[in-house]
Amino acid sequence: MIIKRNTAIALIYWLVLFIILLAAGRARETAQPIFIVLGLTYVISSWSSLLIVKFIEHRPIASLGFRLNSPLRIVLWGAGAFILVSAFLTLEIWYRVFFCGEPLGSTAPSISNWVLELLSQLLFIGLPEEIVSRGYLLTRLRESWGTWPALLISSLLFGVDHLALGDLPQAIQAGLSGLVYGLAFLATESVYAPALAHSLKNLFGRTVAWFVLSR
């Protein structure tokens, strides 16, 4: 199996991010200040993929999928992907409620500040995670192994990232969602489609799940 240079760099980069997440998961319950520092380190490191592309690969940042070739297509794929990943999230919450005994009411936390929440999706969660997992990792894996293996591997690694925080049901849901995000990315050649779906799921997915499961 041949691994090209850019693919190897991408995998090493993913491993570094995973180690940071793993350390954050261990510190979350026992050392809150360390958890906060590691969280900030992870966010900053997530954006460093732009530096890798610019100064190591010597490619334009647009190669990460910063394209708006067809805004309507991006919105439609983003909305469709949101519906599907919300279904995966609903199944995860159904499992937690009916098999783990978690209260349904805790699954739909209220958002007190929409401006801050939207900014967090733009700067810390939805957009940067899609830049890393789809815009960077998937495309660099594709250079060595082709489209479908790259889609599967990047989705698996996306699930493993969530497993680092010690939550197997969420990791399975994230891996399945990663497949959908990847398909949206490949269909539009734009990171904005999966970022839209990812952000919408984080903002509204639990509310959708609560509404479905409370009927």
Strand content: under 5%
Helix count from the secondary structure assignment: 9
Mean pLDDT comes to: 93
Number of structural domains: 1
Shape: globular
Based on CA atoms alone, the radius of gyration comes out at 17 Å
Top keywords for this entry?
215 residues; mainly alpha; 9 helices; 0% strand
Describe this structure in words.
With about 220 residues, this protein is mainly α. The protein has one domain (about 5-215). The chain has helices spanning about 5-25, 30-45, 50-55, 70-100, 115-125, 125-145, 145-165, 170-190, 190-215. Helix 1 packs antiparallel against helix 6 and helix 6 (about 125-145) crosses helix 9 (about 190-215). It starts with a helix and ends with a helix.
Brief overview:
The chain is built from nine helices and no strands. By secondary structure, it is mainly alpha-helical.
SSE layout and pairing:
Blueprint (H helix, E strand, L loop, with lengths): L4 H23 L4 H16 L1 H8 L14 H29 L14 H10 L2 H20 L1 H17 L4 H21 L3 H22 L2
